Amino acid sequence: MTAPLLAVLMAVQFDSVPKPRTVMAIGQVALINTFVNRVDAWVFKQDWARSGTRVWGEHLRLGWEWDEDAFTTNMFAHPYHGGLYFNAARANGIGFFQAVPYAIMGSWTWEYFGEKYRPSLNDWYMTSFGGITLGEVFHRITATIRDNRATGRGRTLRELAALPMDPIGSLNRLVRGQWRARGANPPEHDPGSYVLRIGAGARFAKGLIADSGAARMGAMLVDLLYGDPFTTEYRSPFDQFGVRLMLSSNGGFSSLRASGRIYGTNLNNPARTARHVLAVNTRYDFFKNRAQSVGGQSVEIGINSRWPIGSRGYAFRTSLFVDGILLGAIDASGTGLGTRTYDFGPGGGARWEFAVDRHGARFVRVFGQWEYIHAVSGASADHIVDFSGIEANIPIGRGFGIAAHSTVFHRISRYSTAPKDERNYPEARLLLTWTKAGFKP
Amino acid sequence: MDQSRVQALRRTICGIALTVLLTAPAWAQRRDRPHRSGLWAELGAGPGRVRIACSGCTDVVVASAPSSYFRIGGTVSDRVLIGVEVFSSLDRAFGFSRGDTTTTAETATATVVVLWFPSRRGFFFKGGVGLAAGQFTVPGTAGVDTSNGGGIGLTFGFGWDFAISRKFAITTNLAAHVTAVGDVVLPGQRIDDVIATMYQGSIGFSFR
Q: What is the pLDDT of residues A106-141, one digit of tens each?
């Protein structure tokens, strides 16, 4: 009797699912913009940050343009910034869909009032839509890292580990004394089923550094599957998502990809052995190395299917999705706009996957993706990107395994004023992996 | 007082009370009824103002143009609607520089839109993202020269549903439509990375 009562009292006191604090969330979005602007103006002496009423009036009169910032700035830094706005809302108890306007308006106010440069349309897209996807991914990952039941140094280390991904949520928790207070964890803390795979090893790429010959470099790969399309019934956006991060000794931050379910439904009876589920996902893509740069924000719809093999948890999985790229970016050397060497544009495409898994952890994965981008800023061009590969992971015991990946990145760019450009980038990876998985059927 | 008159008075009071009791929930229900339910559609038109910006342009060109839109969709909840909106604007006396009014500019967007009614009143916010198209035409030596472009479109704004009946409403809108249609190539000039922003005030008719 005492234990359940105590649990209820702790849950109420800790307020793990807080009531929405709308005014606080709006104030924090404004504070983020003011803080970033003033730090840039006063500490880093940046001229672009010296905005004022005359600049604001000019921006309102002239409106949008395309900017010439670096690929990583536009395609990663801005979405990360958008995640701050989004998580200002999420940290104040506001739901996923209700948090969307915070990312959009936070970005809009920054573009018009936060800097001297004219408002940039690509920044608005990337910060808003990228911020929603990355923001929710970070919100949920940090919820699993933080543990409101933990104590001592371990608790502090968890809070510190969450800080880079969700600084606004961490600051809110710090101010509210939640770095130390014990209580119930939010529902996002436990994803149900999950697979975390970390790999490190060598990467061999042709044409990546020099035009000919293969180059060898170190690589680190992190795969996270939060939830499972089949065991996690759709209840809220991003209750199931996947993230892949790759770091490389040559070029550093090489790729980041996140895709989260915003809607899902069963297409057949969940009691049947073979399962088919429909999913609508938002997707964030960032690929950057010396040879190619591609990224964008997309919405995709498709079907995930799973056919069990035997009774030991093995299964075939397939995925087939079509997508619309809200705004994509692709390198277009020698074209672009001004100092910018890549194009912006909308597009569409499709992706497929066939995999063999046990309890959600893939052993073999064959996949392909085809995307079309029509440039609306930069060169007058149409780009087609084709990315396919095969990945195998062989377990060797205690969660460790050997992974071998082989992928090909192929692109064709058709310019209205230049010859067609067609390139291939084959790549192979050999990694030592460690996998931790939880499967709740 | 006469007994029959007392009974008549009692009947009248009971009748009024019963009427109030029965109609109050119905009236309250009517006020609480979602503004749109099931399949809905909206058609409207109104004056617009278009602002064209481009890469490398030091200034923008602003002109007036009539515009129209059509929206159709369904309901996600009492307060959230989702639909598809087609918007178009046509300016027959447009120019990419001041004083030049030879160009006919047609711009259009097709977007997936979300309408959010924050309260039970008819006020709503609108936001959407999708595709855009632009066509620019100038008189040429042999007929007309045309430049077409396609790209991204987005829209945001707000409006108000004024209920006429259970099924129909007059809807007022103030909205911005941003279209990025790429390069416009016309004889003698090339305008890079055109972004047209249209501001529209409109009145529409909603079937809900």
A: 999 999 999 999 999 999 999 999 999 999 999 999
Nearest CA in chain B to A58: B59
Q: Which of A167, A187, A207 is the last residue of a domain?
A: A187
Q: Which residues of A touch B131 (CB under 8 A)?
A: 346
How many domains is chain A built from?
2
**pLDDT for the residue numbered A310:** 85
Cβ neighbours of residue A392 closer than 8 Å, sequence gap 6 or more: A363, A364, A365, A403, A404, A405
A181 plus A220 within the same structural domain: no
Confidence at residue A11, expressed as pLDDT on a 0 to 100 scale: 41
CB B161 within 8 A of CB B122: yes
Let me know whether A204 and A170 are in one domain: no
A75: containing domain: 2-187
A152 and A229 both lie in a single domain: no
User: What predicted TM-score, i.e. pTM, was given to this entire model?
Assistant: 0.86
CATH number of residue A346's parent domain = 2.40.160
Lowest mean pLDDT among A147-161, B75-89, B127-141: B127-141
* A209 and A246 both lie in a single domain: yes
The reply to whether A62 touches chain B by the CB within 8 Å rule is yes
Task: Identify whether the C-beta of residue A350 lies closer than 8 Å to the C-beta of residue A324.
Answer: no
Report which of residues A99 and B77 the model is more confident about: A99
Q: Do A337 and B192 count as a contact with CB atoms less than 8 A apart? A: yes
State the pLDDT at residue A407. Answer: 93
Kindly state whether residues A183 and A274 are assigned to the same domain: no
**Which CATH architecture group holds B34-207?**
Beta Barrel (2.40)
DSSP code per residue over B123-140: EEEEEEEEEEEEEEEEEE
Q: Which residues of A touch B178 (CB under 8 A)?
A: 64, 121
Alpha carbon dihedral A396, A397, A398, A400, in 10-degree steps, equals 10
The whole-chain average pLDDT of chain B stands at: 81
Of A146, A167, A187, the position where a domain reaches its end is A187
Candidates A64, A98, A299: best to mutate against B (most CBs of B within 10 A) is A64
- Quote the pLDDT of residue A14: 41
CA–CA gap between residue A261 and residue A227 (Å, rounded): 10
* Cross-chain residue pair A61–B60, CB shorter than 8 Å: yes
